[in-house]
Amino acid sequence: MIEIHNVHKAFGSLKVIRGVDLEIKKGEVLCLIGASGSGKSTLLQCVNGLEPIQQGEIQVDGISVHAKDTNLNKLRQKLGIVFQQYNAFPHLTALENVALAPRVVKRISKAEARALASKHLKHVGLGDKEDVFPSRLSGGQQQRLAIARALAMEPSYMLFDEVTSALDPELVGEVLDTLRMLKSEGMTMVVVTHDIVFARETGDRIAFFKDGRICEVGEAWQVVNAPREEHTRQFLKRVL
Ligand code: ADP
Ligand code: MG
After folding, report:
1. For the ABC transporter domain, which residue ranges apply (predicted)?
2. Residue 118, ligand 1, Cβ within 6 A
3. Which of 28, 43, 64, 104 is most exposed by smallest CB count within 10 Å?
4. pLDDT for 37-50, tens place per residue?
């Protein structure tokens, strides 16, 4: 479980997260929606321990992310994260990209890492791309490669930050299908997305972010079809 309690985060004098409380339960898919600049990416970075916080606490499986004695490398193995920009190593094949982190971090043998990578590439539908370099993959394939890379660390949670925003429209579907597949397998996920239809259909709950606060959180269909807050209604009117 991921527990976010009264988190405040500022960059200098710019207050970006202003008192967020949120719990993500095991097996749950929580979608985060909200305008650009509302603090969604920053919150994910805080959960992953990439950004310090000024107040509050975030716990992942009971481990306090920002406590001084927390082993962040170990904690991050629980959290797979995939971003909007593709970030594969260009000089490594798809298989080598996926095998690298398990090999280095988990200290498994090269053969084991390759077998693991092969399994996860197949899982995201890239079984025939093992020896291909990232530049030869489409954007959708590169995002699936990024997902395979995260999955190869066998995380307990997956965090997705606008993973389809940079894709040509015809490539969005294959990446969303991969997320739906992970949900069907019971993966716990936090998905930052502008795709309200996806959020309503695939999210268990939706949290609507506004100005560094959660304006509204509830069951996905409720937040989209019957929002309680006027701000949510206005936001949905703009994006739907
Ligand atoms: P979102 O993901 O919802 O679009 P972000 O979390 O990226 O929002 O950004 C929230 C605010 O924090 C924005 O005003 C952004 O400019 C600012 N911000 C994000 N990262 C940094 C940073 N590293 N340094 C300074 N300001 C930042
Ligand atoms: Mg963002």
Report:
1. 2-236
2. no
3. 104
4. 999 999 999 999 99
Mean pLDDT of all residues in 105-110: 91
Which residue out of 8, 17, 36, 41 has the highest number of ligand 1 atoms within 8 Å of its CB and is therefore the one to mutate? 41
Q: Which ligand neighbours the alpha carbon of 13 most closely? A: 1
205 Cβ closer than 6 Å to some ligand 1 atom: no
Q: Which ligand is nearest to the CA of 166?
A: 2
What residues have their beta carbon closer than 5 A to ion ligand 2?
A: 41
Cβ neighbors of 199 (< 8 A, separation 6 or more) are: 31, 33, 191, 193, 206, 220, 224
Task: Give yes or no for residue 42 CB within 6 A of ligand 1.
Answer: yes
What is the model's pTM?
A: 0.96
Query: For residue 128, which amino acid is it?
Result: D
Please determine, for the modelled complex, whether the ipTM score is greater than 0.90: yes
Ligand 1 midpoint to CA 92 (Å): 31
